[in-house]
Amino acid sequence: MLILFQRHIIYMGYVPLGARKQRLDDLPSPVFDRIQCSELNLEGRGASKLSGILVHRDDIVEKDVDVVLVYFQGNAGSPIHRAPIFSYLCDAISPLRGPKIAIVAMAPRSYWKSTPRWPTENGIIQDYIETLRYTLERFPKARLVLYGHSLGGTAAICTLSKLHQSHTDRPSIPGSDRIRGLVLENAFTSIPAMVRTLYPQKWLPYRYLGPFAFDKWDTLAALRAHVGQDTILGRVSREMLVLLSEYDEIVPPAMGLEIFNLVTRGQQSRARSVIIPLALHENAWLRKTWIDEIQKYLVHITTAPTK
């Protein structure tokens, strides 16, 4: 039964109760103090329809945005649940202290109001490719930074692994040279590795179900194919920021370090890993180190040369 219903366990768009029916109006007004938040609706590939939100300060004009953070969410909830994080981030990084930023958070299939089609690794990656395409078109002058939390961090890497330079015969997106940054927060290495982590007892049968996962989300394999290469993922990973919650109770920080070490081992890289003191899996954004590191990283992305 666990094998049969595994995608229902991995992709929990139904958690918490009512997550698919939440509206922006349901959020308390202080969340959007000095912040503009609007709903996005996007036609994906095939019959897919995607919904999300666009967030930025109300004193920033959209055409003046320097950096767009494209948010890849974890395996539960919706963009609405992350609205307080986005509001805090936009408010903390004022145009006087850093770049003008906006956040695009699109819910992949089966999450929030996006198409309720059965989620798969390939399907979710395709939804995020369409999200990147849409964002690059809507913000033709801005640089993009992918921000992935938990499963979203793994999804960000696997999505970038499918994008190649325009001179190849593989899928590419016009303007993809403006994808300049990657932030991973508490990302994991693969679904099989997470199964072993969640069930460390060798006498439990669940520990041995990892190889039967339909969707592997193999972060390390995706990276190995691009490290040191002149591809989008190869280039962006050399500049990535890896954030690790010190007391993460779900994803071991060692997994994030394994991702970081793979990218930096024997490579010329400016990637950085940072431990967020006292943070748990979901609350790193409440720690000062988190906002300080994000601001520093976005300033770097804004000022770094385009090539």
3D architecture notes:
- This protein is an alpha/beta fold.
- The protein has one domain: Alpha/Beta hydrolase fold, catalytic domain (Rossmann fold), CATH 3.40.50.
- It is 30% helix and 18% strand.
- Strands 1-2-4-3-5-6-7-8 form an 8-stranded mixed beta sheet, sandwiched between helices.
- Helix 2 links the parallel strand 3 and strand 4.
Outline of this structure?
This protein has helices spanning 6-10, 83-92, 121-138, 151-161, 191-198, 219-224, 232-237, 253-264, 288-303; strands at 35-43, 49-57, 67-72, 101-107, 143-149, 179-185, 241-245, 272-276. The chain has 307 residues and is of the alpha/beta class.
Q: In CATH's first tier, which class applies? A: Alpha Beta
Regions with little confidence, pLDDT below 50 for 5+ residues: none
Instruction: Tell me the name of the CATH homologous superfamily.
Output: Alpha/Beta hydrolase fold, catalytic domain
**Class from secondary-structure proportions:** alpha/beta
CATH architecture: 3-Layer(aba) Sandwich
What is the β-strand count?
Answer: 8
Number of helices: 9
What is the first-to-last residue Cα distance? 50 Å
Overall mean pLDDT? 90
Describe the global form. globular
Number of domains: 1
CATH topology: Rossmann fold
Walk across the major sheet and give the strand order: 1-2-4-3-5-6-7-8
Rg on CA atoms, Å? 18 Å
Largest sheet: 8 strands, mixed
